[in-house]
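A quick word before the example. In earlier lectures we treated sequence and structure as two separate objects. From today on, think of them as two lines of the same record. Here is Quercetin 2,3-dioxygenase written that way.
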Amino acid sequence: MTIEYATRYRTASRIPADPTKPYFIEKGEGDRAHLFGDLITVYAGGEQTENTFNFFTVEGPKGDIIPAHVHADTHEVFYITQGAVRLFVEDTEGVQQEKLLTPGDFGFVPKNCKHAYRMEREHSQVVGVAAGPGGTFERFFETLGAPADALGLPREPVIPEPHKFGSVPEQFDVRFLRDHEWRTR
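And the structure line, produced from the sequence above:
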């Protein structure tokens, strides 16, 4: 049995807003959102961890690169559980790297490092954790994309209106880099 809570983000959530409450969430039953072609499921966020970290999964089909972006105050972890994901990273001195990650592989992106990723196989999945002094950014996914009630990938990609990208940096520590080019591949 899974308990539902009302939160400031959703009328029904499996995640309690009260950080003093232990809880359990069955596979896939966290707060879900669609963004681009992906399904993002949040299992723990800022409200539960006093803004110290978040924990989420991103599942997606083989597809286009997720736009280059940077977090000024947030470190991000990529742990691959299914499929294959190509992680693109540029450090603060401009050195670019890319790495194909497969199940069990781990990637770490420090704050202020530009990065992007691309699902390289159908049904790829990333476990993500983000932490930093600026708080957490997990509610970015449903704010830029669309909250999702059903399990599964979106039938059609959820592409945000261009103006939505501009409102995200102050609120969620995600700044998109529209004209960024990857020189690796």
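Notice the following. Residues 29 and 61 are 20 Å apart (CA to CA). We will return to this example when we discuss secondary structure assignment.
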